[in-house]
Amino acid sequence: MSECWPRMRITVNGEDRSLQVPPMRRLLDVLREDLGLTGTKEGCGEGECGSCSVRMNGELVNSCLVPVLQAEGASIETVEGLANAGELHPLQQAFLRCGGAQCGICTPGMLMAATQLLARNPHPGMGEIREGLAGNLCRCTGFKRIFESVIAAAAHGAGGAANQETEQATHAR
Predict the structure, then answer these.
(1) Residue ending a domain, choose from 51, 81, 111
(2) pTM here?
(3) Radius of gyration of the chain (CA)
(4) pLDDT of residue 161
């Protein structure tokens, strides 16, 4: 840690964090290496695959493209933040039940994109699901089981939980 780097504050999964890291360091690296939140994955490092997707102030972003300085004062939600007191989020449960998770590289980004989608529309149709997850690539499942997982989660009320989380992030700003 260098004393010449500015001290930054961000809220990660509801917890206020103070960091002293290079301001142009990628949010992805800060999450994984400095905060130990390794659920967020790096796929391409170019913002093309969506594996590193997190929610920043209620919006989906590719953390590999965000300098941590841009996250100053922001509320960040990672895949670790979906679970509540050790209990999986309904969306995570649906991914397990329906086989939407395969190798695990794309899964965190898919979960975050699906969380974003369900926060905006608790009962999306197939076209909306395809569009909502379009920025995320999966090389294992062919997307069918992922789409089925989102439909199952919506049927079990995951959209209401995601919407409540978005409102909490918005009020935290």
Answers:
(1) 81
(2) 0.89
(3) 16
(4) 55
Sign of the alpha-carbon torsion through 55, 58, 61, 65: negative
CATH code for the domain of 123: 1.10.150.120
Token readout for 64 is 């590999």
pLDDT one-digit tens code per residue, 110-157: 999 999 999 999 999 999 999 999 999 998 878 999 999 999 999 988
Amino acid in position 67: P
Residue 162 C-alpha from the chain's centroid: 11
Residue-range definition of the domain harbouring residue 163: 90-172
The rounded distance, in Å, linking the Cα atoms of 111 and 108 is 5
Residues 70 and 20 in one domain: yes
By C-alpha distance, which of 58, 54, 57 is closest to 29? 54
